[in-house]
Amino acid sequence: MASILPPIPRLVFAVLEPISLIAGWIAANFDTVSFIADQIPSSSSLNVHPSSPSAQVVAMQLGNTYMLLALLGLFILNTTTDVRVVKVYIVALAIADIGHVVPTMWMLGWERSINVRSWNKMAWGNIGATVFLFVTRVTYLSGLFGKDRAAQKGKIL
Question: How high is the pLDDT of residue 149?
């Protein structure tokens, strides 16, 4: 159960992260054109046409991946009593965090990546929130939030 996590990682990984992933799913599926256009803030030379069917289907598929990650997080963190499963899951997410931030920063370029005042909400999600999650994951894996708690027996979900 999520109760094996210390309080701060539990809040971040079992509550806040799934909520943010569901918000990403909503944006990608119900405001698809803006979701695509906002990937690179203040870009006057947008090479992808946000209204193209190809761009929209890729955005919706990404949204589906967000929902998948939200569900996996909720199911894994609320059903397992094995700390090893939780830690391996968190390691996988930390690796994926790097794979999410690096291409975003690459496409923004160094100057726009470090100019946080120019970021839009998408850049804050793609870089700011993801870096926060990465730091929280590494901090948890390092044991700085304290020891994992003993699993409590009870009903699943």
Answer: 85
